[in-house]
Amino acid sequence: MSFTVAALYRFAPFDDPAALRAPLLALCEERGIKGTLLLAREGVNGTIAGTGEGVAAVVDHIHALPGCADLDVKYSAAAAMPFGRMKVRLKKEIVTMKVPGVDPAREVGAYVAPAEWNAVVDDPDTVVIDTRNDFEVGYGSFDGAVNPHTKSFGDFPGWWRANADQFAGKRIAMFCTGGIRCEKSTAFLKSEGVDDVVHLKGGILAYLEQVPETESRWHGSCFVFDERVSVGHGLVEVGEKGEDR
Length: 245
Fold this sequence. Notes:
Strand 12 and strand 13 form a beta hairpin. This protein is of the alpha/beta class. The protein has a 5-stranded mixed beta sheet. Strands 6-10-9-7 form a 4-stranded parallel beta sheet. The chain contains 7 helices and 13 strands. It has helices at 17-30, 52-63, 114-122, 134-137, 156-163, 180-191, 203-210; strands at 3-11, 34-40, 43-50, 72-78, 86-90, 110-112, 126-130, 140-142, 171-175, 197-200, 218-220, 222-223, 230-231. The model has no long low-confidence stretch (mean pLDDT 93). It is an enzyme of class 1 (oxidoreductase). Belongs to the TrhO family. Its EC number is 1.14.-.-.
């Protein structure tokens, strides 16, 4: 038996995220879904796994929440259940940056489709920045991407402010695992006065799913936050670095 894995997020205005928790958790438990979902006033984020029908039911439920009609969902498969239990947590942010006022639902950088991303990576006048932490970058990244060597996403604003001058006048392109961190990063850069900033729509996972390996600018695998450890082109399980499963 294989399991359907859904990585999802949406920046949306939830007036009372606590009221959304119990119905969502009850549905997940009823359908045998496991994983983690985060709810905050800025939206929803997480990864879940289970049967295809069960995951679809939960995704449909989230689609119906306020502002979630355009929920970003990326599907993959796992040979074994990649999570031990189901958690629905209330948080201050669905991805922690700790910069007040940054709102991707209000203003965000331009999206670049995976099929167009190679042209961004190849452009000498564009600075491509990996917004993930240093541990994740160690598994793989795009050709020539800048690694900020952060320990957590909350370190990114400080890194940017310390290094912004060297990127002046350049187009900035950012990417992350599934799209959520780079989306918030572009919103942050917009708030810092950077006009020409873009990010990879759907993140690395969408790129590895849609772009043929023969045309890829990606090297290595992509770390994921479950027991699969990492995935490669076609979102095939890789495991530890260089260890095909």
